[in-house]
Structures are given as C-alpha cells and as structure tokens.
C-alpha cells in the first residue's frame, strides 16, 4: 500500500496550475492507494457547483486532471475555516479503492468557520483487499497555542476514531519532530507509531525549509508532516517527495511518500 501526504498551499503558489498538473501526473504515475491533502482551497467568490464545493476547488480540478490521465480516484473534502479573507480552506482524502464511508468533524473547540484557528479532519473507511482501514487527513494547530492547543485537538481526534481496527492519522501536524515533550512526542504517547521511524529505508525526512506561515522567523529545516499508524506496521520505505531533488517543489511543504505492507 502506497500513501502520500502533502500540504498543497493551493492558490497561494506561483504557476499554480502547472504545479497541480505535476501533482496529478505523479499520482497517476505512482498509483497511490490513498492521498491525504491539506490546505485544499477554493475561493469564496467562485460559483458553487454543489452544496459546499465551488468551481475552482483544488481537489475538484485535481480529480478532473486525474480522470483525463486515466486514473479514477474518489475523494472527500470539507473546509474548516476562511483563510486570508479569500479562501475556504479544507482537507481532503483521495483513494482508488472502495470507500465504505466518509466523515468530517471538528477537532478544534471552535466550530466557527470564520475563525482561522478552527480545525476539521476528514476521514474515510476504505476496503483494501477485503480489509477495512481508516484514514484521516489532518491539519492541526500548534503545541503552544493558548486558544486552540494541539494537545486538546489530538485528544478530540483520538476519541473520534475507531479503536478496533487499523487506522492512520496523516497530514500537517504543525509540530516539529526534533522538539522533545511537545506534539510529536505526545502523538506517540497516546499510542501512535511514526511510519518514518518504522521505515526500513528512509531519507532525512525534512518537509519544510525555513519560513512559512505559522513558522515565521524559523530558519531551520523541519519535519512536521507525518503518517502515523495505530499499529506497528511493516514500512518498506519513507521518502520525501516534491522537494526539488525528488520531483519539483510544488508547495511550501514537501510531500511524504510511504510504502507499507498490510
């Protein structure tokens, strides 16, 4: 099973449509089983095409490009808050497998979508070769946030997921792996395994270089994007993608590409 996570930074990138095409071509070529995306945006002024989706929704355009390439992926998307006064910013999951069910829910205390710290997770139960596995695309807050702290969001997330089957928490966790006794350690404390640490083959793992939104004046390389598993699975490889060495940079985050045997 091959998984990908990427914070897309969508509609905030130069040459955005070219970068969307690179993402679509990569997904098509590498045939990922499940993809988790964050900062999956649509402009608040675009025409509505369904109850909560607009014509320029990034995931909608990505799905169309995938279909044009010959790949069929189902997706779930929902938005958590308004960003930069221009976007409905959301999270998404795509899969080429049978979707048993999908859901979205807030993990922040605030459920006010006009508040930029509101956080929502989308989840899917997917049938993979006759086995039901759950995936959650996450874009979380910061450990030291006085209003919406990471610990409370993770506690809410963990209470909302099934305990009786394998599941993965995937995405941008906004907590750096090198900072001890903060969010990265806490996720493991509540029972999750970092697939990067389990991987037989891996690279440096860096997913962000220098300043980005939320990490201003931070000039260090960081690992803040993860694929966490509820069980100690066999991880064949974990590699960073879209980092300029392994495919072109298409966002202010790099992607994480993990191959797992289940």
Automatic annotation (TrEMBL):
Any one Gene Ontology cellular component term annotated for this protein: membrane
Q: Which GO terms describe its molecular function?
A: catalytic activity
SUPFAM superfamilies, alphabetized: DNase I-like (SSF56219)
Task: Kindly give the CDD domains that the UniProt entry links to this protein.
Answer: RgfB-like
Organism of origin is Virgibacillus chiguensis
InterPro entries according to UniProt: Endo/exonu/phosph_ase_sf, Endo/exonuclease/phosphatase, GPI-anchor_lipid_remodeler
What lineage is this protein's organism placed in?
Answer: Bacteria, Bacillati, Bacillota, Bacilli, Bacillales
Name of the protein in its database record: Maltose 6'-phosphate phosphatase
Please state every residue range assigned to the domain named Endonuclease/exonuclease/phosphatase: 19-253
Q: Which Pfam families match?
A: Exo_endo_phos
Q: Which GO terms describe its biological process?
A: GPI anchor biosynthetic process
């Amino acid at each position: 099973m091959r998984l990908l996570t990427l914070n897309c930074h969508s509609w905030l990138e130069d040459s955005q449509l070219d970068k969307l095409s690179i993402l679509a071509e990569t997904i098509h070529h590498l045939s990922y089983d499940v993809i988790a995306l964050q900062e999956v945006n649509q402009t608040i002024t675009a025409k509505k095409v369904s109850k909560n989706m607009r014509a320029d929704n990034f995931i909608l355009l990505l799905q169309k490009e995938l279909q044009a390439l010959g790949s069929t992926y189902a997706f779930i998307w929902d938005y958590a808050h308004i960003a930069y006064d221009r976007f409905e910013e959301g999270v998404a999951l795509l899969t080429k497998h049978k979707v048993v069910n999908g859901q979205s829910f807030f993990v922040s205390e605030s459920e006010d979508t006009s508040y930029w710290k509101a956080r929502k997770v989308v989840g899917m139960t997917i049938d993979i070769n006759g086995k039901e596995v759950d995936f959650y695309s996450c874009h979380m807050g910061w450990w030291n946030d006085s209003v919406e702290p990471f610990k409370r969001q993770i506690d809410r997330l963990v209470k909302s997921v099934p305990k009786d089957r394998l599941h993965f928490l995937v995405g941008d966790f906004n907590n750096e792996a090198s900072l001890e006794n903060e969010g990265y350690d806490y996720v493991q404390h509540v029972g999750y395994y970092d697939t990067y640490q389990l991987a037989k083959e891996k690279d440096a793992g860096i997913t962000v270089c220098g300043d980005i939104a939320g990490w201003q004046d931070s000039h260090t390389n960081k690992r803040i994007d993860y694929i966490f598993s509820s069980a100690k699975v066999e991880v064949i490889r974990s590699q960073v993608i879209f980092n300029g060495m392994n495919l072109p940079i298409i966002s202010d985050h790099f992607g994480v590409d993990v191959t797992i045997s289940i």
